[in-house]
Amino acid sequence: MTSRRLLSCDYWLLGLIGACVFGMGAELLWPHRLAPPGKSPPDDSSAETTLDSPHQEPPRLPLQAYDAIVERPLFAADRRPYEPPAEPVETPRPEAPQPHVEFQLSAVVSTPSEQIALIKTNLFPDVQRVALNESLQGWMLVEVRADSAILRRGNEQVTIELRPNAPPPGNAERPPNVLGRK
User: Fold this and answer.
1) How much is the pLDDT for 49?
2) In a domain, 23, yes or no
3) Residue 145 CB: number of other CB atoms within 10 A?
4) How many alpha carbons lie under 13 Å from residue 124 in its C-beta half-sphere?
5) Does residue 14 belong to any structural domain of this protein?
6) Coil, strand or helix: which one is 182?
């Protein structure tokens, strides 16, 4: 019979077997310092024992004694209990002063389904179409009359006349008929 050469896996296998044999021998032959749970070894020392004895159980404390430990976060650097951040105190911000707006009513359109005012302001050069309950630069159109419109912003209210210094419609005299017809 020929001799076989050992391979590297054979060395690994022999090392593993040796480690198992050593571990089992150490477990069986080595004296243990701890007793299995529920069994206490015979006490050869005097009747008075201290915590230095390897077989003595520590005194049992009630679970409430550990509350302080549980409250401290494990992964926080300072181990302080969590405190929610204080609610920020809201200080009322002073409102920015609104620019002075001057309105000029160019026209009024009133139909059974819609009321519209065409308004020009000193802030924009173009005439803007504003329907009832729409806003224009923070001012809400709240009422449209035949000769005026009412805008409101907060407690302020502005009435814009269609033709300032002109008599209201219906009371004005008719201009003379050039052609002489009635």
Assistant:
1) 46
2) no
3) 15
4) 9
5) no
6) coil
Name the β-bridge partners of 159. Answer: 150
pTM, 2 dp? 0.39
Q: Residue 165: left if φ>0, alpha if ψ -120 to 50, beta else—which one? A: left
Residue 108: closest CA among 43, 163, 172: 163
The DSSP 8-state label assigned to residue 13 in this structure reads H
State the CATH number of the domain containing residue 116: 2.30.30
Q: What is the token pair recorded at 45? A: 């020392």
For 145, phi then psi, to 5°, come to: -110, 180
Asked if residues 130 and 136 have their Cβ atoms less than 8 Å apart, the reply is: yes
Domains contained in the chain, number = 1
Where the chain has pLDDT below 50, the residues are 46-49
- Tell me if 141 is assigned to some domain: yes
CB-count exposure of residue 148 (10 Å: 0-12, 13-18, 19+): middle
